Amino acid sequence: xxxxxxxxxxxxxxxxxxxxxxxxxxxxxxxxxxxxxxxxxxxxxxxxxxxxxxxxxxxxxxxxxxxxxxxxxxxxxxxxxxxxxxxxxxxxxxxxxxxxxxxxxxxxxxxxxxxxxxxxxxxxxxxxxxxxxxxxxxxxxxxxxxxxxxxxxxxxxxxxxxxxxxxxxxxxxxxxxxxxxxxxxxxxxxxxxxxxxxxxxxxxxxxxxxxxxxxxxxxxxxxxxxxxxxxxxxxxxxxxxxxxxxxxxxxxxxxxxxx
Length: 259
What we know:
The chain is of the alpha/beta class and 259 residues long. The chain is built from 4 helices and 12 strands; from the N terminus they run ββαβββββββββααβα. The radius of gyration is 19 Å and the shape is globular. The protein starts with 7 loop residues before the first strand and ends with a helix.
């Protein structure tokens, strides 16, 4: 596919404002990489129309506001930037990201945080399927995903580390989370759900355990940050009990491949 339009940009104070429009994603990402190497640290991307890989492989502490809908793999392999999406996002956000943050003021698609190794993602609304799949952690580096709405099936599938928090703010008081096969193949990390979930919806590899003081402090911290990002009511978020899901074994499929 050939490049379509040149990137239209201007400098406002210390911010590079980029009118994206129908600019081909490769041209746009190459130009953003050049500007970051030149030392620019603040970006405003206007009229984003599904361009893929925005923020991919960027390894500096920059701030990027995205107005519109970014395409798949937003922030893939990202290491440091802070991305603020003023709209919905598509699939694969934070794919294998190392550090930094992605804050989405809307909904997000499937496989959010695929193989995420560090950093954090906050989503105001709902997310799709297989969110947090293959998340992992190493030492003190623990990725975090916080979801304000609900998630579709296979939440936390094959999760090896990190933290998933789902507030379910769109659920009624007696309405359980709809996600099925939660934690299938999970062997590390933790999932926190506000409200209830049908036990039959859980993967056989996970179980519900009581919360301790550290869990309560973590949930409150995540809720406070969510409320700050999205102008939400902290007391409303914390007005229902949470459950904690953890893996029952670190080798859920060990006997399938080794004897």
